Amino acid sequence: MARENTNQSHQINAPDYLAWHVTQRAEKSFWNKVGAAWKHKDERGYTLQLETCPINGRIVLRLPLEDAPDTTNQAGRA
Fold first, then answer.
1. What's the pTM?
2. N or C, fewer C-beta in 10 Å, the chain?
């Protein structure tokens, strides 16, 4: 018989940084959110979780905006 874990000490933490894939085409930059990063408890590193792993361009970590609205539509695209 399985036991239920009633210990709810693990809180869902907002990420410290958002990960963006940035590509350059002509004079325009295109930014797509690809993941997030969380600071380690000892503050000596970060855990980076990517939903996708781009093969070109660059990944930029930026602080999340506090008052930014969710810009994804129902299909999950920005």
1. 0.67
2. N
pLDDT in tens, 24-54: 999 999 999 999 999 999 999 999 999 999 9
Report yes or no: 60 and 19 within 8 Å, Cβ to Cβ: yes
Domain boundaries, the chain: 17-62
Give Rg (Cα) of the chain: 17
Q: What is the pLDDT of residue 21?
A: 97
Q: 31 forms bridges with which residues in the sheet?
A: 22
**DSSP letter at 44?**
S
Q: Which residues contact 2 (CB under 8 A, 6 or more apart)?
A: none
Q: Are 23 and 39 in contact (CB under 8 A)?
A: no
